[in-house]
Automatic annotation (TrEMBL):
UniProt name for this protein: HAD family hydrolase
InterPro entries documented for this protein: HAD-like_sf, HAD-SF_hydro_IA, HAD_sf, S-2-haloacid_dehalogenase
Pfam families: Hydrolase
Organism domain of life: Bacteria
Entry's Gene Ontology molecular function annotations: hydrolase activity
Length: 255
């Protein structure tokens, strides 16, 4: 039974030039860290981007959170201790007070067309919702982008961030950890996302995905634009249950 719909954020609920956003974030935060730690700005920028890459490796063996992994990488590569409360507060201040003003014509972040109606359609059916954005950033940074997308008042039961995750997409542990937190099984949830690599758990864990990006991935339960999602939700539900029934039949035959 479908109990919840979980959404990706960037290019799903939020229309954004994500590459430009990451470039601004990495440049300004690494410059801030270089100033605080009295380090070379170029070497700190290299350390910062390498730490981001460390976090975004889907396959890795760790028990710590993504935040702890990122902080340790910055300390190892750049010599700055992000767990120091003073430094942590400086970064949080930047992400809460300065970063929201960086939304310029290049980043161009705004609500995705159809996103509000999609959320309304899901909630009107009594389904639960969560925001399963790739947790490459801290909570304050994610909340900044949620603000740009007018998502801060949406009743998401969970928003994945660096602080509350141990993996990133498409690692299945990222998804199972989030669904465990919600008390849900993969078979009870529909993922909505635009990324043909990240928004499908790899390997498959039985989590269906409505794809709102370009193309028609074979694993997608439904493909279309975000602005078509709400008006197509009856069809999406039907496809969800048909695929769930087919998966059950396949499982029984294998047994």
């Amino acid at each position: 039974m479908l109990k919840a719909v979980v959404f990706d954020m960037d290019q799903t609920l939020l229309d954004i030039n994500l590459s430009a956003f990451i470039a601004v974030l990495a440049k300004e935060e690494s410059a801030l860290l270089a100033d605080i730690g009295r380090r070379n700005p170029l070497s700190m920028f290299a350390a910062y981007t390498a730490a981001l890459l460390d976090v975004n490796r889907a396959e890795r063996d760790n028990t710590c959170t993504n935040r702890e992994l990122f902080d340790a990488a910055i300390e190892r590569r750049g010599g700055v201790v992000l767990s120091d409360p003073v430094i942590a507060d400086a970064l949080t201040y930047y992400e809460r007070e300065i970063l929201p003003g960086r939304n310029d014509a290049i980043i161009d972040a705004h609500p995705m067309k159809g996103a509000a109606k999609a959320i309304e359609a899901v909630l009107s059916r009594g389904l639960r919702i969560a925001l399963l954005t790739n947790p490459s950033f801290g909570a304050a940074c994610i909340e900044c982008r949620m603000g740009w997308g007018q998502l801060l008042d949406v009743p998401f039961e969970l928003v994945t961030t660096m602080e509350n995750t141990r993996r990133v997409k498409p690692n299945p542990e990222y998804y199972t950890d989030a669904l465990d937190e919600l008390g849900l099984k993969p078979s009870e949830v529909l993922m909505v996302g635009n990324d043909r690599q990240r928004d499908f758990p790899t390997p498959d864990i039985g989590l269906q995905t409505a794809f709102v990006g370009r193309g028609t991935p074979v694993r997608a339960t439904w493909c279309g634009r975000m602005d078509q999602f709400a008006e197509s939700f009856d069809e999406i539900e039907q496809r969800f249950y048909k695929r769930a029934e087919r998966n059950l039949i396949d499982l029984v035959q294998e047994v």
